[in-house]
Design goal:
The complex is a heterodimer of chains A (113) and B (114). Chain A is mostly beta strands and 113 residues long. Helices cover 0% and strands 53% of the residues of chain A. Chain A has no helices and 11 strands. In chain A, the strands form 2 sheets. In chain A, strands 2, 4, 5, 6, 9, 10 and 11 form a 7-stranded mixed beta sheet that branches. In chain A, strands 1-3-8-7 form a 4-stranded antiparallel beta sheet, with no helix packed on it. In chain A, β4 and β5 form a beta hairpin. With 114 residues, chain B is mainly β. Helix content of chain B is 0%, strand content 54%. In chain B, the strands form 3 sheets. In chain B, strands 2, 5, 6, 10, 11 and 12 form a 6-stranded mixed beta sheet that branches. Chain B is globular, with a radius of gyration of 14 Å. The N and C termini of chain B lie far apart (41 Å). The chains are: A mainly beta (113), B mainly beta (114).
């Protein structure tokens, strides 16, 4: 069984550009979560999607947005990139029946120059 | 608001010795508590969770954690450390009375010295 897959692995952008990160959950999982892991800040919750709806949002500005598609895959969009957006972005998925255990992808390393 | 604290940025333990990684939490209702581990260049892996019942929870790779309600702690333990246990460990909490969002700590880097 395939795990959570994220693409691309690495992404290099310049300040002011837009970045799009993609996530495919484990088959059968309906919830997708996005986290930002910046150096020294641990894991910061970004967004949670379930059944195509945004369930919750972390303390991030509106230029961080996303969506979940009918096949439960998800996109994270970051507009007007700033240098401090450089981080590892992790996606996780969970089954609706087991919301406590999240399965994580390997992440997308975003570098903003 | 719910929160979780990992007071140690790094813990060093000699191979074969017992290890403890500390975690304290704050929630308004009953906590659901978790430990995850992150190996280099990989995502997080679930280790164990406490929902209810026995305060001592056993998880993957020989790890266990003890829920202490009076001290609001959920420390991760292992009787005998292995070099392969070296990784970044995250404690997390979910308050079922709120929005079901999981809050992660900042992580503790565990170094097992050969």
């Amino acid at each position: 069984e395939a795990g959570v897959t994220q693409s691309p692995t690495h992404l290099i952008k310049t300040r002011g550009q837009q970045a799009t990160l993609r996530c495919s959950p484990i088959s059968g999982h309906t919830s997708v979560y996005w986290y930002q892991q910046a150096l020294g800040l641990g894991l910061q919750f970004l967004l949670w999607y379930d059944e195509g709806e945004e369930r919750n949002r972390g303390n991030f500005p509106p230029r961080f947005s996303g969506r979940q598609f009918p096949n439960y895959s998800s996109e994270l969009n970051v507009n007007a990139l700033e240098l401090e957006d450089s981080a590892l972005y992790l996606c996780a998925s969970s089954m609706d029946a087991h919301p406590d255990i999240q399965y994580f992808g390997a992440g997308t390393r975003l570098s903003v120059l | 608001a719910q929160s979780v604290a990992q007071p140690e940025d790094q813990v060093n333990v000699a191979e074969g010795n017992p290890l403890t990684v500390k975690c304290t939490y704050s929630v308004s209702g009953n906590p659901y508590l978790f430990w995850y581990v992150q190996y280099p260049n990989r995502g997080l892996q679930f280790l164990l969770k406490y929902i209810t019942g026995d305060n001592l929870v056993k998880g993957s790779y020989g790890f266990e954690a003890e829920f202490n309600k009076s001290q609001t702690s959920f420390h991760l333990k292992k009787p005998s450390a292995l070099v392969s246990d070296s990784a970044l460990y995250f404690c997390a909490v979910r308050d079922r009375r709120r929005d079901d969002k999981i809050i992660f700590g900042k992580g503790t880097r565990l170094h097992i010295l050969p």
